[in-house]
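Q: My labmate handed me this sequence with no annotations at all. I'd like to see what the chain might look like in three dimensions before we decide whether it's worth expressing. Could you predict it?
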Amino acid sequence: MRFVLAIVAFVVAAVMIVAGIAQRTIFAPPSQVTAAATVPADTRYVVIDSAVLNAHPGQQTLSVSGSKNAKTQMVAYGRTADVKAWLADQKYATIAYRAGDSAVTVKTVTPKSGATGSSGAASTATPAPTATPTPAPTGAATTQAAAPGPNPAGSDLWLDEFDGQDAQVTKMNVPSGVSVIVAGDGTAPAPDKIVLTWPVDTSTPWAFPLIIGGLVLLVIGIALYLWGLYTHRRSRGPRRKSGPKMPKLPKAPKYKPTASIEATPRGRRSTRRTRVMAPALLAGVLALTGTGAGAAFAETSTPTPTPTATSSAPHGNGNSPAPAVTAPQLERIVKRISVAAANADAKNDPNLAKLRFAGPALQLRDANYAIRVKKADQPALPAIPAGPLELSLPQATDSWPRTVTAVVKMPNDATGKAQAPLALALVQQTPRDNYMVEYAIALEPNVKVPNLAPASIGAAVVPPDSKLLKVQPDQVAAAYGDILLNGEKSKWYSSFDLTDDKLVAQVGASWKAQEQARLAQQFGQTSTLTFAGRVGAGPVISMATNDSGAIVWVNPEEVQLHRVTEAGAQVIAGATTAALSGVAQSNTGIESVYGYQLAFYVPPAGSDEKVRLLGFAQGLVSAREVP
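A: Here is what I predict for the chain of 627 residues:
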């Protein structure tokens, strides 16, 4: 019997080991699923929707090749609506994939009539797909095909971007609502070979247990075989020879019961025998039918809960628009702005500054560059640090222009003293424009920032003429300028909290009165110094806060006119004014314009709070001799 058990163990062990090894070798599933597509050679832009990228679970790997110039190729991904808005007036190819039969199709999308490019508001309507046209013969290209297209590289619209060699193989986990764009530099065609790869679960959970179990059975079989062999050898000891065989005894006659004898025994012994046989027969029946005492309970199974699918994507929840940028996207934008500002500041080049600055921020930098060219000791404006971000407040919108507020931590100064954080107001006018710095201010010390919406939700932009605030956003600049001119006499004085206002202390009504008195004492009645306020050309930017108030960015200006009032007298300009105006002294007068970049917290209408200054930047923006 031991030899039989050993043979059975050997057979089962061999089957288990072979099955385990086969699962890891000949029966192993493929490690990935691959789909390849070839787009027409003259295609400049290729769009891959998230539905294609998520056709299979797992991380997607995108490989591109076939570009004539690998240095200009790029792969980026962004919200599907943003990608289509960027491609508003451009023809592009889309890739579709059917997971059932692994079929890949390529379609060409042509722009709808009336779509505009970056010079105007881009149409966000989805272009209608058309069949891929047959490539035209050489020399028969249309005017649109011959004209260079926009370059998508470096756009602030993308959630992430890979350029040059980094674009050849890209690993990503693209959520729903996000699309990938593959392109060249807008003039050269995009890579025409697109390969998508998804990983496949190749785990074989039963392979290792089968192999280990087979080895264990093999050891048991060997042990049984050795035990049986040892027992068999012991049972074959020396035996004595037997003598002659005994004769067979005659058979006894068979007993035949009479009718008087009962065939079935009765009594206590027969009852006991019956009781013993009944359980034995019942156990045999149960063993043959495969049921037991616990079989009834084994049929009840515990329900398995179905997990609820959740998704996290950089787009709205269907009820509200998505924030204009994500936190990583804004960090990348600020780093690009920092590099552009450093290049412009190092060369005092206003043309380089125009790449990332606009409005009041550009006006102040242009003036600073002009002054520093003629006055070497003029301090430069604060640099734009690359990070880290202390606060980000994007606008929740699906249209343009888009506004984003960011607060960047400033490094310590040369003496090791901490500097106030820098607040930026960024505006993107169209999908193809980058975010431009409209305002760049230093926050007030110990400023109390109101409660803001998280960056993952974004905030709404308050209309400039909104009457839901204590002061209309488009009136804040004029109201504060009136306070700088007239102080307590201003009708707006009680509406503003000026307790810790550093700008009023520096250039307010008291300072102006002191300057007028100083000039009168020094030069008598030969000249006059007057001040006038006006609203600058900068945009009014209002971002809603959680308490129904708003952060309002405005651009008031102040005009200082130093005019000669007595014949033969002259007005002497200061060094900064002379450097900017080119006039050191004048027989008529000199006009100096100071620009202010201000950020306020404006409480909601009916609130007991007052409007308070959050931060400012100011400086001379223009100067000229007046007739």
